[in-house]
Design a protein that fits this description.
The chain is mainly alpha-helical and about 350 residues long. It has 15 helices and four strands. The longest helix is centred in the middle third of the chain and has 27 residues.
Amino acid sequence: MVSGIFHTSYESDMALRRTPAQKIRLALFILFILVFPFFASRYTLTLANQVAIATIGAIGLNILTGYTGQISLGQGGFMAVGAYTAGLVTVRLGLPWWLSIIIASLVTAAVGALFGIPSLRLKGLYLAIATLAAQEIILWVVTHWKALTGGVEALVVPDPMLFGIRINSDFNFYWLAWGLVGITALMTVNLFRTHYGRAFIAIRDQDIAAEVMGINLFRYKLLAFALSSFFVGLSGALIAHYRSIVTWERFTIDVSVLYLAMIIIGGLGSVSGSLFGATFMTLLPAVLNNLGRSLRGVFPQITSIMPFIQQATFGLVIILFLILEPEGIKKLWEDIKDYFRLWPFSY
């Protein structure tokens, strides 16, 4: 009696999807993504676009924190670099929007590598404080360098156009955002099939042992910061062109904490966990707001206390996941798959 999954070639063993069930699930997910915008409302499309942008940023943070083990609280600041760079090169230099996204991602990667230099000497809480300093430094520069960024005034970005079509409408932007999610996910999955990705994981598991094995810690930590910041800058640039207004208030420390919560709740060191966490943390406030509107007739005062309810729910969800399922939604999904795969012989 054959038990388990066996491969008879290197091609099948190294495939991204090794079993028919995995291929079917991926095909169904892609089919859902392709069909969804034709039946969704404008409000739902807006949420889907927010999930897509958040997924790209969460994948970027997961490269650094989940895969490489470098804690970062500077996500909001790096997103601000991407958003302001994309907006400024479009407004001041007149470059096309697609080129501004590429430039913004590269500039953010350089800034991330710069702030990643202390990672050679700092670990854990000390590195988190250093990245928190990066967050505050970037926002200080944004709000005080009026000649470049306009200070606290909002930066208005022209609508991105392609062949006479406005890209930042909800329906059109959906295809751009989710197409970039697919590219980001594919690049990240393949990254950790290379020696660079294996070096990142070795640093996360035990950096001293990794250095003894010949891994250059300084080089690979900087590379992790740069790659992570590249995708974070990409998400920031997408925000700039989707909203058409860039303001520092969108990139505060709350955003950094939110993205850290996304990868914790979704699952550290996982591309699918980044998607799960981004979806959960983006839809949770929307669900609470809709619930508050439905209860407004019964409890008129709920409107005034809804922000506090959201904050309390946000903290409660993180605590519950850390206590009940530290590996996040990804582990819950794996448990569900294992249950059906092994049923009725779950033992």
